[in-house]
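User: What would this chain look like folded?
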Amino acid sequence: MSNSESPSAVVLLSGGLDSATVAALAQSAGFSVYGLTVRYGQRHHLELEAASRVAKQLSVVEHKFVDIDLRTLGGSALTSELAVPKHSSAEQIAAEIPVTYVPARNTIFLSLALAWAEILGAEHLFVGVNALDYSGYPDCRPEFLSAFQSLARLATKCGVEGRPVTVHAPLINLSKSEIIRRGLELGVDYSVTLSCYDPDPDGLACGHCDACLLRLRGFQEVGQRDPARYL
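Assistant: Here's the prediction, encoded as structure tokens.
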């Protein structure tokens, strides 16, 4: 099926493991993928470079960057000088919402993706949120996605005219190991991805933040070596 015959989908690409898997899943389902990455003032630029690598590796139709500055608001270890929590194992990850939560981030990102989808005439939007192996973020839950889907149908011209954008979250109920296994089946090259919240200037992952620990445990559970570079 050629791109002209395939339905279009906007996929939020962060450069991490989950978004790379979602993009590959969208392609395997027959969608022409348009990748959207947000430069929101995150603490390092390396994830943006990873997003570019993922887009190139998957040969997406178009990869667009959108600039906003959430550092002016702060409130998160990813948009301020607050320290990123570190642990020695995934079992030590706290149950409460961590300081790496960026207030309203997924609401903002999905809104930007929704706007581009409407401009493109794309009726599908994919996001890599997950409600199992995650750090307790409120905007990674099924309830949030259901509410955003309702908003998308009310707040857009395409929704009012009966052509609503559908929000897909195919990883929502998968464990990290299940996500990795599915990605490997699709040929995702996880060496180009970066999940770490606090990598060093050379792009080496810290190995002790929540994102690193969940990723490492996922690869261990599937019996594979994580191809990411760690300190």
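The mean pLDDT is 94. If you want, I can go into more detail on any region.
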